[in-house]
């Protein structure tokens, strides 16, 4: 790691040292280029009219330009116009000075009452010179106004061109190894040198003003406090928060997530306050210009973002307390990753300062490209080294027999995405697409920050809710006693509040990814954007553009993830903790999924920019399709909705439809799944449950009937048999006492008598097992009482040889015969 850091610092120091040297040489050249051109026979008025026409034409063209090359041409034309204005000023200024000298020789016009009288020639000469001088003054004012307007236009073109670099990703701005890329450092433009000198003077003036006699002691105190916050404040604040989490928070995972969050917040808080103190130190007096104040404000914001990167790295690695580490990272890998968050934060901070200097100065776009290219290069090397170094450490652990941490598929995908992005950035720098490379690397940094914060805060929310409503903690016990709640209600509150917090964080992350950018987006801006979206602001102007396709895909992925997570939470966490039966829970989950997917589809179309009043042709096409080929699908869909709302049958019911008897396992949009007794599944269209007769055996908590019909011989005592049957039913634990069991004399014939005994069970599903148990018990008791059952009659035929033939009962006989 020292080798990587030393290489990065050497390259950066070389760039910083070469840049002022180039600007110094250019400054000497620029100082020798201003010379007087003397009197000329140029028609100044005509030239002014021509230059004004050119300036108006450039302004009109700027408003419709959207590519870098055209911006460059217009800026060159503007610079040429400024040069011509300077030439005209060089012509007019000496002539005006000459006229003023001649007027000084003639002197002022004498008073009317003076004794001295001028000749007519002198008076005429003075009037002529005054007229010429007034004409030259007017021309000089026009030249100065033209020059100021052209300079302002050039600055606006440069700003527009710089902003266009962020959106024109396919712009070829020169390879990193090409001479054109390094030309702003080797041969800087004179206007860049002049602007740098002007801005340096403003910064120096603000610095000197902060150390003037009136402000000196306050500046010293503020800077000492800022230094103390950076060096000692964060350290002691983190120690205090760690002590607070250990001694004041209940045992559990909340301590771990609280410490990680406290590490990030303490780092951002101390460095942010220190940066604001430095800003206030040098901008609190009137000497600081608006440009310096704007530069310092942006610097403070950039410092806060960089401190967040460093804080997140320290929180997730947690080398001081490895057992409290949130992500699953082994100790050797965590120790190897320690310097990288700080290196990345310093690279972003240093080059962010240089970039902000160029923006504040209004330098040419070539300087901005150099700064962007170098910053992108160092960041890409840092992110690539993170992925490669972690892999190297894991291979070394495997070689030495140690077991690295278990990596999920998601972590592997993230690791591969970082490597591919780094490779794409380096290739883009080599072939000259600096804007694309910068966009990719800063989007990677921004996505990493957003998802890191999402992981950190979602863990904190989940652990906080779990600890707050835990019946084992003091807070949960107080809530339980004060509100007279059960443990089931506390678990429901935990699941509900943690899910609401996670959904809110996911929505904020989506807003940050779709609308935020690194270094400029603050939490307050994210909240304002979320409120605007909630209120519908901006949705009325949606149009389908290529950029919105990416937004729609990102939104669709996040919405599907949130939908599935919500369904799993509703099905596995929340509803099982309620008193609803299983069928109602399944119906609610299915209805929630159907409505949710419909809302996701509509919102995805809205993100694409499709207006609902433009969907009339789609509705017409669907109507035709339904009329010809989608009748059954729509009918089954409507029937499924009716089944879920009216609930004539529900999941878990035992039904019989068209000879198919089984348990309903799932009610889908199109069909219903019925599981038979042999565990096979029959899929029945939903429309059949609406249009056909359906027997719901278990509807309304129906009871099962266990009836047995037994045949006894005619010589059997029916009262004794009746008592045995009733005792067997009454003593069985599955038979209900109400309605009470009963015995009926159902049949009497020459072959015997038939007694039927009937009892009720809790569910029709229990009838078979209860009847089997009763038969075992009744047979046992009848044999103990020597009461036989009627046996089939047999016919025995005897012949002379004393052989016999047994004739079986005839088919259709109720009682077998002999």
UniProtKB/TrEMBL annotation:
Segments passing through the bilayer: 215-237, 258-278, 298-317, 338-359, 365-388, 409-434, 440-461, 503-524, 544-563, 584-609, 615-634
Subcellular localization, as worded in the UniProt entry: Cell membrane
Domain Mechanosensitive ion channel MscS: 633-698
Keywords recorded for this protein, A-Z: Cell membrane, Membrane, Signal, Transmembrane, Transmembrane helix
Signal peptide as annotated in the record: 1-26
Gene Ontology cellular-component annotations: plasma membrane
Pfam families to which the protein is assigned, alphabetical: DUF3772, MS_channel_1st, MS_channel_2nd, MS_channel_3rd
InterPro entries per UniProt: DUF3772, LSM_dom_sf, MS_channel_1st, MS_channel_C, MscS-like_channel, MscS_beta-dom_sf, MscS_channel_2nd, MscS_channel_C_sf
Domain Mechanosensitive ion channel MscS C-terminal: 710-787
Ranges where the DUF3772 domain occurs: 140-200
Record bears the keyword Ribosomal protein: no
Record carries keyword Ligase: no
Family the UniProt entry places it in: Belongs to the MscS (TC 1.A.23) family.
Protein name: DUF3772 domain-containing protein
